[in-house]
Design goal:
It is a single chain. The chain is α/β, with parallel strands linked by helices and 213 residues long. The protein is 39% helix and 18% strand. A seven-stranded parallel β-sheet has the order 3-2-1-4-5-6-9, with helices on both faces. Strands 7-8 form a two-stranded parallel sheet.
Length: 213
């Protein structure tokens, strides 16, 4: 467990997961600095550094040191507008962010992927998520944690009819398919960040729920 002050790099701080994770990070006594680039300004905090703009444009100007990086970037094909645009965010931007985090000295990357991620899947969404995971594995991280949550429950900025209809049923599914509350996911991510280790760890949604209690 980390006892020295931590410098954190966070992508996706304005999204549902990233917002909850940022709040947790800024209230942790061991976190000295959170570097959280975002499209729109975040609420000011003495431990928050918030470059504003397009992430891809901001990456070269980010500065270290960074100990741990969290990637909470994620979209949907509907939100992105096309399959190519979705891939640009959920694959290309995630991989570019991770590479820059490594350059800044981060030893541990925690990334939010998705249940069913599989680079060989016939489902486009799952295939892109799986290809992203494979690309991150090839970056040679000393410690890489991939979180695969099921449907996330919590307030969203945009309305998603399918998720709204499915949520009551997914709350009762067994194992890793059961929906997970976003606050539980944020708690789980921080607890996973505190675990010292080496190599790859893939954490499915049922374990994330347990860690986030």
């Amino acid at each position: 467990m980390y006892l020295t002050p931590q410098h954190i790099l966070l992508a996706g701080a304005s999204g549902m997961t990233g917002e909850h994770l940022l709040d947790r990070l800024l209230n942790e006594p061991t976190v000295e600095r959170v570097l959280a680039p975002s499209r729109k300004p975040l609420a000011e905090h003495p431990h928050l550094e918030n470059p504003v703009g397009e992430l891809l444009d901001l990456l070269p100007g980010l500065n270290g040191p960074v100990h741990t990086a969290f990637c909470c970037l994620g979209s949907t094909i509907k939100q992105a507008g096309s399959q190519d645009a979705f891939r640009a965010v959920d694959h290309d931007l995630v991989v570019a962010f991770a590479a820059r985090a490594r350059e800044l000295g981060a030893r541990h990357l925690l990334v939010v992927s998705a249940i069913g991620a599989d680079s060989g899947s016939s489902v486009f969404y799952n295939r892109i998520k799986g290809q992203t995971e494979e690309a991150l594995k090839s970056q040679g991280w000393p410690q890489l944690t991939i979180a695969r949550p099921s449907l996330l429950l919590g307030p969203r900025n945009e309305f998603r009819l399918g998720e709204r209809l499915a949520a009551p049923f997914l709350r009762w599914l067994p194992g890793k398919h059961r929906a997970i509350d976003v606050t539980a996911l944020a708690r789980a991510l921080w607890r996973l960040a505190l675990e010292e280790g080496e190599g790859l760890r893939i954490v499915e949604s049922d374990e994330l729920r347990r860690l986030g209690r």
